[in-house]
Amino acid sequence: MSVIDVTDLRKSYGGRAAVDGVSFTVEEGEIFGILGPNGAGKTTTVECVEGLRVPDAGRVRVTGLDPVADHREVTRVLGAQLQRSELQPGLTVREALELYASFYPHPADWRPLAERLGLAPKLTTRFATLSGGQRQRLFIALALIGDPRIVVLDELTTGLDPRARRDTWELIEDIRAGGVTVLLVTHFMEEAQRLCDRVAVIDQGRVAALDTPAGLIRRSAGATVISFTPSAPLDDHDLTALPELASVRHKDGRVTLSGTDATVDAVLTLLARSRVTAHHLRVTDATLDDAFLDLTEATA
């Protein structure tokens, strides 16, 4: 059963379309990702879902409710962590949790929530002295304190170090395991590939593709990636003539080709014929990052 329905959503600023006909549904109990580069229209889309912005056209429903016309009711079923969130510097973690709990008629008990999110030892700590990871945990707690059916997490791990980011990923998985549907907005491909059941790739205000991460990778023109450092330069004409080639990239003397098994066979033949050694040769399956590049280059 879908809990979020977005149909032909449109929103412009100063005559420029930020969201240009976006449509998707989010099913109950899934982690649904909205993926795209900065400025693609991701945040505007979810702000329309949250009722923070009024669409110019299209239809948005959250558990059957209009986020604008039924905003009070929507806030009881949907919690949100915004892309840019701040609290008063002197507010303690306990004060923030108690304040947000007072906004809801039937809030979740913030004490086990704080324990679950590792905030219990920080209840008397002021917001200004929390680390980046601790602040994100607090914002997750505040998004969940209304005991919502759905939570929107917008660029949750931006600015976090790798360890804090992976800890936050585990928290998101725990949230879903607790029965909450998650709408996750990110531009981190690894994050989307690990967490999301389905992903909508938004580019230039439009949905470029919608599928599971594995499905997007399978649909990619370059499902296999071969990379190496050649012992001598290779002719670009020979590389671009390889069969079933999706892309060629050069960086710091290293060549990376996306294609199929046929591309791999052909490039090995080319190397042997050219008497060029492939140093540090690697052949791997494509990632969501590779699929994303194919999709966004196709719509550029």
CATH superfamily membership of the largest domain? P-loop containing nucleotide triphosphate hydrolases
Rough outline? elongated
Number of helices in the DSSP assignment: 11
What fraction of the residues are assigned to beta strands by DSSP?
A: 25-35%
What's the alpha carbon Rg, rounded to whole Å? 23 Å
Strand order of the largest sheet: 5-6-7-3-8-9
Could you tell me the CATH topology label of the largest domain: Rossmann fold
Low-confidence stretches: none
Order of helices and strands: EEEHEHEHHHEHEHEEHEHEEHEH
Indicate the CATH architecture of the largest domain: 3-Layer(aba) Sandwich
- Average residue-wise pLDDT: 89
Structural class from helices and strands?
Answer: alpha/beta
Class of the largest domain in CATH? Alpha Beta
Cα separation of the termini: 34 Å
Describe the protein in words.
The chain is of the alpha/beta class and 300 residues long. The protein has 2 domains: 210 residues, 3-Layer(aba) Sandwich (Rossmann fold), CATH 3.40.50.300; 82 residues, YebC, transcriptional regulation domain (Alpha-Beta Plaits, 2-Layer Sandwich). It is built from 11 helices and 13 strands. The strands form 3 sheets. Strands 5-6-7-3-8-9 form a 6-stranded mixed β-sheet, sandwiched between helices. A hairpin with a 2-residue loop joins β8 and β9. The longest helix is centred in the middle third of the chain and has 16 residues. The chain is elongated. The protein starts with a strand and ends with a helix. The relative contact order is 0.14. The mean pLDDT is 89.
